[in-house]
Amino acid sequence: MKHGMTVADAQAKERMYGIAQEFLKEFSRRHGTLLCRDLLHADISTPEGRAATRERNTHANVCSPLLAEVTALLDEMLK
Questions:
Q1: pLDDT single digits (tens) 7-53
Q2: Residue 2 has pLDDT above 90, yes or no
Q3: Are 37 and 44 in contact (CB under 8 A)?
Q4: For the chain, what is the radius of gyration of the CA atoms?
Q5: Alpha carbon 43 to its chain's center
Q6: What is the mean pLDDT of residues 64-74?
Q7: 26 is a domain residue
Q8: Is residue 5 part of a domain?
Q9: How many domains does the chain fold into?
């Protein structure tokens, strides 16, 4: 929202795309992927994958820590 467009502005749009790409590149560098199935080591679009993530408590063990990291990374980037 800080760098988003409030009016049609091609320069602001390109600047925001650059920031988004920087974020994605850094996340991928840290984790080797942007794909949930690779981060979770399961395909949650399948019943088996969802069952595996429940068994491993993936939400608490993977998703929540990743969200905390993403929040910190975004905070760092916005400063």
A1: 777 888 888 889 899 999 999 999 999 999 999 999 999 999 999 99
A2: no
A3: yes
A4: 16
A5: 17
A6: 96
A7: yes
A8: no
A9: 1
* CA nearest to 23, candidates 75, 73, 66: 73
Kindly list the distances between the CA atom of residue 18 and the CA atoms of 15, 24, 41, 58, 59, in Å, as whole numbers in the listed order. Answer: 5, 10, 29, 31, 30
Does residue 4 sit within a domain? Answer: no
Three-state secondary structure string covering the chain? CCCCCCCCCHHHHHHHHHHHHHHHHHHHHHHCCCCHHHHHCCCCCCHHHHHHHHHCCHHHHHHHHHHHHHHHHHHHHHC
Do the Cβ atoms of 70 and 27 come closer than 8 Å? yes
What is the Cα–Cα distance from 53 to 56, expressed in whole angstroms? 5
